[in-house]
Design brief:
Hypothetical protein af1432, 14 helices, Thiol Ester Dehydrase, Chain A, 9 strands, seven-stranded antiparallel beta sheet, single chain
Amino acid sequence: MKPTGFYKLTSEYIELLKKLGGTYHDNKERPVYCCLQDKNYPNIYWAIPTSDISHRREEQIDRIKRLCALSNRDIRSNYYHIGHTNRPAIYKISNVLPVIAKFIDDEYISQGKHLVLRDTRLITELTRKLSRILFDEGRNPNKYEQHITTIYEFLKCGNSDINPRIFAHIQKNILPKYNHFDKAHNRSHVARVIKNSLTISKAYDVDITKVYTTAAYHDVGLVHGRDEHEKASAAYLIGDNALKTWFSDFDLTEMAEAIQDHRASSDKEPRSIYGKIVAEADRDIEYITILTRIAQYSLEHYPDYTAEQHFDRAYTHMQEKYGESGYLKLWLDTEPNRSNLTKIRKALKDMDTFKVEFMDIFNGL
């Protein structure tokens, strides 16, 4: 895909958008302008629908002009842009769609050639307005009717076999709960566990929607406190009536058991591959990440501790969990967990260096 090219979307993409909870009113085959390649996920492009200005009524054009003339501080001034494609056109920027190559039906052909925008001033202005819309969406997820955030998160997963209706339900109703948990178990944590789970699952014959769902619910029971949160999380999944629409009783039980079995302090082997996957994904054995999470948790739960007490607690916890005789068990032979655990055990043998590394992180929080 060319970042300034025009394309046509597949009907499959529009169906996916609707299953993810979004709305798309335009049933006509129109070109979309691929304005910007995503910085973090270069396989994702931001596509702006366009339309021929001659197909608009005069009062519609007047309304669009009034919006464009608003102050730059007003987000509505970025909803549209009047420019050109191969003819005078309207760019519907607030209807922007995140897409990947899989959902491109074909290049948009004009006069026998792929239509590519080359007007640098127009490209700059479209990019500016698009950046404003995406910033607004970031502050207000799914503000726009097409549900930009949910589509983007779905494409980020890199696996279109996940049931989009379940994905949308979890994005809307489950993941936001993690915003209220401590920093060691917040939205970033569950995102890592989901990502790790999907990566690990590639080596196994599993239902990818069950992998995703198990990871998404694995800590949601923290709404009732940390003690036995794995049991509360499993109960939360079983009690979510929406899931009964898509999963059998067997599936729900298997996922609930997987969540119950995932806790690192458990010395019992998980009962299914789903439990082993989420347990392995939840380990997230990365030295600096672990030190950061321990420091965050300690500051939040033991605010009266001195820096030395925080360090002592961190070192003791690391030894008890990750040391040579620690309780942490890896149920699958996956990387980088194996090599990272070896790295941590090596670090724990040099307490002076460990203290310097911990205090650097601690003092930066």
